[in-house]
Design brief:
Blueprint lengths: L12 E5 L2 H17 L6 H7 L2 E5 L19 E5 L5 H13 L5 E5 L11 H8 L11 H12 L11 H21 L3 H7 L4 H13 L5
Parallel strand pairs: 1-2, 1-3, 3-4
Helix pairs in contact: 1-6, 4-6, 5-6
Length: about 210
Amino acid sequence: MQEASPDVPRSPVLLIVEGTNDVEFLKRLSRILNDENSALPDLGDLDESGRVIFVPFGGGNVFSWATRFAPLNVPEFHLFDRECGTETTLRIDAARAINLRPNARAFVTTKRSIENYVHSEAIAAALGVQLAVDDGSDMSLELARTLHQADGHEPAWCELHRRDRKRLCHRAKRKLNSFVVSEMTGGLLQERDRINEVIGWLTTIGQMLKTPRD
């Protein structure tokens, strides 16, 4: 793709993600990867300069966001967690519909969620607990339970009220996408992401940033 000259105006790229935790993940990890490879965009810097605009839509019906910003005629990057069951099919179908539109690209994670891209070594470094990370587990739930047990809290996890478990899972999710991601390196990411999905997302955003505005 030919890069536009510096004086050609470019539209900001809308980064449409499911929630604020995804924003934290992408900002922190892109900064780490940019430090190791300046060809990859630092999304935090680009957000501050207005070159990209994060749109956390809060989950729910992904199809309702497939064409929400189409009238603006600006580049759109969508990222959906795969989740599981019938929800996976809905997200794949939504991404396919988005990718039929010009100036829009959508990806569905091959792992269950964005938290499944972190490394167990980063969890240990950030939080001081040992927790295996795989591609299909609910890592927020697994971390919440591990932290609760490690701290020796009462009552036991299985005896907690559903509301309390949910609160601890939300807290664990924030930790995974902030403290834990900050302990990641390019090497640790490569171990968890051998097909370079994350780098592919960032590369796509970088290419969209180079597209001149009509």
